[in-house]
Structures are given as structure tokens and as C-alpha cells.
């Protein structure tokens, strides 16, 4: 059990940090699957899986954010602004999660995972705009090659999108980066590396609020969290390192296939 949870945490940390997802999209399905096949994990309910995942996501986000500090790719000002929407959304999502029955949760979570997999498929076909529209929130970033990137967005739109992302994070125990990163790149003109790093920063802050909410509701399995966190911490550092050196295309392809399989399986379990 110890080795298995360490590996789940490590995989979640690597994938979450590499593509800005947060890692919950790996942890929650794995815990639910283990709960259905093993007596060791039979106590895992959807609420415990989500609450435990958010606690682990905090450490994944913190580890990767610290790593991204070295690359100076975190836009703290934009991250703090967007957190004003995602933070309250996470708390509300956590409370709504507490009222979902197991079958309902599996069904809606399956739909959500399928939606995320389609987002990942669609992301590669999207073309990033080449011109920046003047919005009230304007930012600049100079990359390692000395190239200056300019991007801007409407704070109102940013807050609305981040609130929805935060809500799904608290409801399903995911970081929300699968929704936030494409929005930051395509709608807000963020450079991709800045979008991933800033997404992890927002995820770190939001997961604190979501974690405290789930803790207050008794939705955290502390032993499983303690075993997942070391692997997630190390994996997040590796993911951040790989993000600066590799394209995440192969990882995303594998993730798409896995999400499709898991999403269909959860839908079937929720219905039958």
C-alpha cells in the first residue's frame, strides 16, 4: 500500500506540474478505483477522495511553484487577482460535494473527466492570437531568450472564469489547471510557460481554502494523504524541471487516453 500510494502521488506530481493540472485528475480516480477493488481502501468515499486530493494538491502546487521561482515564470499579480475568484469558488464547490451521493458523484465526475479529455484534445488545435487586445489588465514577460511577451485580459472575465475553475476544484478535488491553462493561453494571451507556472500558483492558494473546508467537514484520510504527499512533492519538482526542457505533448496524449477510459468507466458505475 505504501509503495502504491507513493507512486500515485509521484505520477500526479509529475503530470500536474508538467502541464499545470495540479494532479487531482490522477489522484481522485486512482483512490476511487482502489476503493472498488481492495479492502484496504474500502473506506474511501467520493468525499474522502476529493478532500484528500486537495490536501495533496496543496503540496504539489507549493513544490512546483517553488521550482518555478527559479525560472521567474510565475505572474504573481495576475495569479492573486484570479485567486479572488477561484478561492471562494473552491469553498462553495467543497460544500456542494458534501451533498453528492456516491452514484451521483461518479456520474458527474465521469462527465467532468470526459470534458477535460476533450479540452486536452482541442487545446492542440487552438492557435494562440498573435495580437494583444488592449484590456484593463496588462502584463509583460521577458523569456530566457530576451524576447518580450505582452498579454492582457479583462479582470471581470478573469474572475468569472477563475470562480468556475475554483468551483470544479472544490467539487471534484482537481487543481483546475486543465481549464485555467487553456483559458490563460487563448483568452488572456499568457505565454504557455507563464500560464502553467501561474496556474500552479493559483492552485496552491485555492487548495488551501478547499482543504480547510474539507477538513472541517471530515473529508480527509490523513494516512493516505501522508503517503501521497512525499511522492507528489518530488514528482512536482521533476515536472517543473521537465516543463522547461520538454514539450508536454507525449504526456498529454497519454493523459487523454487515460481520462477517456476512466471517464467512461465512472459514467457506467454512476449509471449502473
TrEMBL record:
InterPro entries: TM_pro_TauE-like, TSUP/Inactive_protease-like. One of its GO terms (cellular component) is plasma membrane. Signal peptide: none annotated. Keywords: Cell membrane, Membrane, Transmembrane, Transmembrane helix. It is a multi-pass membrane protein. The keyword Membrane applies. The chain crosses the membrane at residues 48-69, 81-100, 106-122, 156-179, 185-208, 220-242, 248-268. It comes from the Bacteria. It is found in: Cell membrane; Membrane. Belongs to the 4-toluene sulfonate uptake permease (TSUP) (TC 2.A.102) family. This is Probable membrane transporter protein. It comes from Sutcliffiella cohnii.
Amino acid at each position: 500500500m505504501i509503495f502504491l500510494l507513493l507512486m500515485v502521488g509521484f505520477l500526479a506530481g509529475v503530470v500536474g506540474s508538467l502541464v499545470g493540472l495540479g494532479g487531482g485528475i490522477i489522484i481522485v480516480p486512482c483512490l476511487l478505483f482502489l476503493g472498488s477493488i481492495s479492502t484496504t481502501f474500502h473506506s474511501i468515499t467520493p468525499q474522502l477522495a476529493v478532500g484528500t486530493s486537495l490536501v495533496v494538491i496543496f503540496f504539489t502546487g507549493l513544490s512546483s511553484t517553488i521550482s518555478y521561482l527559479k525560472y521567474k515564470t510565475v505572474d504573481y499579480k495576475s495569479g492573486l487577482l484570479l485567486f479572488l475568484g477561484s478561492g471562494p469558488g473552491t469553498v462553495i464547490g467543497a460544500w456542494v460535494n458534501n451533498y453528492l451521493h456516491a452514484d451521483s458523484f461518479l456520474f458527474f465526475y465521469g462527465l467532468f473527466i470526459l470534458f477535460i479529455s476533450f479540452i486536452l484534445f482541442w487545446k492542440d488545435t487552438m492557435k494562440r492570437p498573435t495580437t494583444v487586445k488592449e484590456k484593463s489588465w496588462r502584463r509583460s514577460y521577458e523569456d530566457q531568450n530576451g524576447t518580450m511577451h505582452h498579454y492582457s485580459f479583462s479582470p471581470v472575465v478573469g474572475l468569472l472564469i477563475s470562480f468556475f475553475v475554483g468551483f470544479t476544484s472544490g467539487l471534484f478535488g482537481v487543481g483546475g489547471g486543465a481549464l485555467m491553462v487553456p483559458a490563460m493561453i487563448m483568452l488572456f494571451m499568457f505565454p504557455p510557460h507563464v500560464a502553467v507556472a501561474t496556474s500552479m500558483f493559483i492552485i496552491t492558494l485555492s487548495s488551501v481554502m478547499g482543504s480547510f473546508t474539507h477538513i472541517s467537514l471530515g473529508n480527509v484520510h490523513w494516512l493516505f494523504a501522508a503517503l501521497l504527499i512525499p511522492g507528489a512533492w518530488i514528482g512536482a519538482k521533476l515536472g517543473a524541471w521537465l516543463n522547461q526542457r520538454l514539450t508536454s505533448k507525449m504526456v498529454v496524449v497519454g493523459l487523454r487516453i487515460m481520462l477517456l477510459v476512466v471517464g467512461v468507466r465512472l459514467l457506467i458505475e454512476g449509471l449502473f
